[in-house]
Write a structure and sequence with these properties.
This protein is an alpha+beta fold. The protein has 17 helices and 20 strands.
Length: 485
């Protein structure tokens, strides 16, 4: 197959697992989809390709707009989308970053084996559910006052270290060391701060979760050793973001951009892509606010880490340090960053927008922490409750192929509404328990919305990433306990 027809869009096969929507009309660049034919059949079921084509109209976009193999329809810009946009004469688009700024994942290692945990699954999942706030609305590990919130927005995990919720190695093993220096707390709208102040250290709802897992397969023993991972080891995965603060921030800046830069917005095929011109006051304000929300999200995940360590210490009767509960890595997957990339043989500073996509830098890139610089950045790819997840390392081709990016998860196959119509939470919970996966959530509806059948095949997503050289499998992990909002 050399072409793929999807309504009024024709994709041309560039090479295996790479499909292109050719540049035409007002498109500034082509669009590319990284997918096998099987995944492409699923991607074309919604508006993903239309949204990807729309994204090519953004001023200053370079090379091509990209959709990762886990791509699906989002708000304006597809989830699984990547766009490198010139930071000098391009733009920045909140819709191409997402409402949940710095939604991301982190993996915590332990020295426990699966045998150490067997028979204590129910005790552990109950204790975690009790200790880690989840669900809609307020309530967090820490209900901060104004000063605490401002410190979190400005200093990220550095504030957690000072306040006793982190250790030095947590910063060393977090993307950007857990702090964006360009953060501007004053640019964060007051309503966003009001929403976030009582949500510090909470999972939220939807697809956010805390999952206890075991290493089921090791694909790359040398890199696994560098990451401190081995077969049958127990690890913990945390997936959440900036909660109501990030959502409110995105909402308000989108409205401001639509009003202030109406000429630019009106020229786009979808106003949900609303963008502020690079160098404009509003672009600078949004970038500073987005970086502050990024810091807030890192604080959120760090506070959950602190509470998780406390639970493990209580359940297993040893200090968390003795249990080896060190952070492997924390990665963001809804963010824009100023990064330097090669564009047509010239180094250019770009706003690299990743919406439902993960940075995947290879070995030697200076942004990779010292501990991993010789092997490449860890990349955590969550799957469903029934399929397991992966740890990859940044692939050697990622900088050339995808602005140093890969997928962020399995990607949804169906909407939450359809999922609730097709699955019953109690049935899903019972089926998973029969497979020795213990799930607890605020409601059965939440479990139904996140049933394994709702997601794409994460194995196929990872296979495509590996084939393209943008993410190399290191280990696969399987779920043991899972809590959801």
């Amino acid at each position: 197959m050399t072409t793929f027809e999807a309504g009024d869009i024709t994709l041309r096969k560039v090479r295996e697992n790479v499909w292109e929507i050719p540049q035409e009309g007002d498109m500034r660049v082509p669009a590319r989809v990284f997918a096998s034919e099987r995944l492409l059949e699923e991607i074309v079921e919604d508006r993903t390709l239309e949204q990807l084509r729309n994204a090519t109209h953004l001023p200053g976009i370079r090379k091509y707009a990209i959709c990762m193999p886990d791509g699906h329809q989002g708000y304006g810009f597809p989830v699984g989308g990547v766009a490198g946009i010139d930071a000098e004469n391009g733009c920045i688009s909140p819709g191409a970053i997402g409402y949940d700024v710095n939604c991301g994942v982190r993996m915590i290692k332990t020295d426990l084996s699966y045998a150490d945990l067997r028979g204590r699954e129910t005790e552990l999942v109950d204790a975690l559910f009790e200790a880690v706030p989840s669900g809609l609305g307020g309530g967090g590990v820490l209900e901060g006052d104004h000063g605490i919130l401002e410190s979190a927005l400005e200093r990220g995990v550095e504030w957690c270290l000072e306040a006793g919720y982190a250790v030095e190695s947590d910063l060393e093993h977090c993307e950007d060391n857990g702090v964006r220096r360009d953060a501007d707390p004053e640019a964060v709208p007051q309503r966003a701060k009001d929403r976030g102040q009582n949500q510090m250290g909470s999972l939220g709802s939807g697809n956010h979760f805390l999952e206890v897992q075991r290493v089921a397969e090791v694909f790359d023993p040398e890199t696994a050793e560098a990451y401190g991972l081995e077969a049958d080891q127990v690890v913990v995965l945390i997936h959440c973001g900036s909660r109501g603060l990030g959502h409110q921030l995105c909402t308000e800046y989108l409205r401001r951009i639509e009003t202030t830069h109406s000429g630019l917005v009106d020229a786009l095929p979808d106003k949900e892509l609303a963008a502020a011109p690079a160098g404009s006051q509003l672009a600078e304000e949004y970038y500073g606010a987005m970086c502050a929300a990024t810091n807030f999200a890192w604080v959120n995940r760090q506070l959950i880490t602190h509470r998780t360590r406390t639970v493990f210490a209580d359940v297993f009767g040893e200090p968390w340090e003795e249990l080896g509960m060190e952070l492997l890595y924390d990665v963001a997957h809804n963010i824009a960053k100023k990064e330097v990339h090669d564009v047509d043989g010239e180094d250019r500073e770009l706003y690299v927008h990743r919406k439902g996509a993960t940075r995947a830098f290879p070995a030697a890139r200076p942004e990779v922490p010292d501990a991993y610089r010789d092997v490449g950045q860890p990349v955590v790819i969550p799957g469903s409750m029934g399929a397991g997840s992966y740890v990859l390392r940044g692939g050697a081709n990622s900088l050339d192929v995808s602005f140093g990016s890969t997928a962020h998860g399995a990607g949804r196959l169906m909407s939450r509404t359809r999922a609730k119509n097709e699955f019953r939470g109690g049935d899903v919970q019972s089926e998973l328990e029969g497979r020795e996966v213990y799930v607890k959530a605020q409601s059965g509806a939440t479990i139904a919305e996140e049933a394994p059948g709702v997601y794409k095949d994460v194995d196929e997503v990872v296979r495509v990433s590996e084939a393209l050289g943008i993410g190399d499998p290191v280990v696969r992990v399987e779920p043991i306990c899972n809590i959801k909002g």
